[in-house]
Each structure stands twice: as structure tokens, then as C-alpha cells.
Design brief:
- 31% of the residues lie in helices and 20% in strands.
- It is α/β, with parallel strands linked by helices.
- The strands form five sheets. A six-stranded mixed beta sheet has the order 3-2-7-18-19-20, with no helix packed on it.
- The two termini are 19 Å apart.
Amino acid sequence: MRLNQRMSYLFTGGRFLDPRQDALRDGVSVLVEGDTVKDVSGTPIRSASAQRIDLAGRTLMPGLIDCHIHIVLTEVNLQLLADVPLTLLAAKGSVAMRAMLMRGFTTLRDTGGADWGMKEAVESGLFVGPRLFISGAPISQTGGHADHRKRTQTRFVCGCCNGLAWTARVADGVPEVIRAVRDELRKGADQIKIMVSGGVASQADPLEALQYRMDEIEAAVEEAERWGTYVCAHAYSARAIERAVRGGVRTIEHGNLIDEPTARLMAERGAYLVPTLVAYDALKRRGPQFGLSEYSLAKNEKVLEGGLRSLEMCRAAGVRIGFGSDLLGQLQTDHTNEFTIRAQVMSPQEIIRSATLVNAEIVRREGRLGELVPGAHADLLVVDGDPYRDLTVLQNEGARIPAIMVGGRFVKNTLSH
């Protein structure tokens, strides 16, 4: 798909969604020049060069951000990736990215697998996809959540011919952890991902396992911070979360089995939670048909049961809650069901803030992403309906999103049809 050249656009005649406000605003005009929002005003904006776009009562809002996805984990049964060459993995990842973009997600934080090449392919226009913030290969201890070897394997296979080996790395002890963090940063990682507990998809570790010693966690955090970035950590149990937060980890991924004291600790330390509730719902309903093991299904039941409760605890404690999905492969069509699940305990306004303002904070792009203000990236959606009253307008594969813009370029525009 060839992207159009950047131009100037003046959006008028619609309703404006400011995620800092609880209701849509009427009579707001937005001027986009090049890749940037130039002006947002409740009075008419004059521009001799801008193409005027009459929204005809539709909603103009910032593009959505997903802070926990895996572009290249294109199978529910991860072991199948062992037979996928890197070229095919990249091709499948490009299709997944484009689908996420068409659902309205103009920014993604990949928490393990996508590399600098995928990011560069998007930025140079070779792939059509959202902005990417990449973690590179997530870092795991031996036997941890990202050690994908089978129980019968001792050696690691070459990543050049095994897609699964390319999506994670193992490092043990402080020197190895330091080397792994430095290497992922060298290769272009925007943030570092570590595994500090067992997981659902992994086949050799208990869900409650505490992974990495405190000195290893602290070493990863120190190296990331010296580079000017941060560490996010896969963690389920309260004890695993507590250890990560005390070690300086900035964002906790999942967090389903948290308790109230640990939620308060997160709030005190300014740590973010990125829940991924839709993943467990989708795994329960659809995982078996795609080869999810009985061992993983049993672990999934535990985290599924605790998901909404963890959200309520963190919300009550004042933890900043981001938006993630963590869907593997064929389950990514359930992406926007995260809105529906969260709506059981959060308001539409809170959910949209999670997927805009809070996630912009997580990727450290406040004022540039997650809201349409002067100086922000021109990443925006035109939506048929009011998401504050009906979150389903953001579902159904973008059926009610007639226009999507990233960096001042339309990647979808059916407004004139």
C-alpha cells in the first residue's frame, strides 16, 4: 500500500474527544500540518492551504495505543514457530500490524519479539503499521517464562532458522543479565522486558514461580536507566510483582494475582499496571482449537479468575492503569474485546484514557501521543458514534472507523464514499 504524501488538513463539523474530559465537545476544529497537530480551537481556524474535511457530526479522537502486544508471536501454540523462518515471521508480523492499525491502534508497544528491522520497515514505509516501541527479545532466566526449549532439549537452536528462538533470550547471573540488556539496547530496544514469574503459555514453569534474583532484577533496571529508558516485567503473583517493583521495574505486565498491599506499593512507587484481560478470555474460549496445552489451560483458569479483581484493587489503590491485549496469533481478532471486558469495572472514559493518555505516559510521549493538542503527532481517528456512550464503535475490526491517520498521512479514508 502506497502512503499519500503529507499535506495540511482542517477537520471541522464534528465532535471532539479530548480524553482529559468526560464528554465530547462540539464546535472544535483541528488543523494538521505535515505530521503534526498545528492548532485545536473552539473558534473557526483559517488556513489557505489546508484541505477541509467536514466530519458531518462524526467523532474526531486521538489514535489508540496498545502497550502489550506481540507482533511476531503469530501462533497460539508457540512451539509451531520453531518451523517458521524469519522471513515468513516478518511477513506474518506485517499483516498483524496492519490489522491492528485498521482497528484504530496507531501506536503499539511490542513487549517481546519485534526488532529494529520491523520498526524501520514501518518508519520507512515498507510495511503499513502503527508506530512501534520495541523491547527486542525479552530476557528470561534458565527455565523461565521465555526459555522456550522443550524438556528434552539442552542446547539452544540458532535463531536464524528458528522463529521461536528469535523471540526471546536467556541470561543468568548479574554479568549475563547486564550483557543481555546492553545488547538489546544496542540493537534498538526502546525498553527492556524481563520475566519475573511463570506464565500461561510457557510449558516448563509453575505460574507462581519467582524468577530472577533481586540483584539480577536491579542490574537490569540500572542498565536500562543508565541508557535513559526503563524495564517492564511479566509478573502474575503478588510476591513477583512486589520484588519487581522494589527492584525498580516501571511497568508490571498482567498482574492478575496481585493483592492490596502490593497494589498500594505500586501506587507509592509510581509503577504502572498493564492488564491484558482479553488474552485469558480468548485462550479459554479458543485456545484448545489452536493447540493450547492442558497445562497452559489450567494456568489460564487461575489468572482468568483474578483478572477483574486485580483491576479493581489497583484502581482503588490509585495505580495508573494502561491498556494491553497480549493476544497470540489467531486470537488477535479478539483485540478490541478488551474494551468490553474492562467495562465491567471501569467507565468508558477510564478505558479510553488507559488506551490514550496513560499509555502515552508509559511510552514517555506525553503531549505527543494519546491526545490531539498543538505539537502532538497527527495520529487520529474519525469514528461513527460516541465512544464514551458506546464502546462498541471501536470494535468489529474498525467497521465504524471510516478514517485513520498516522503522522499526518491517511492510512484509511472512506469519508467521501
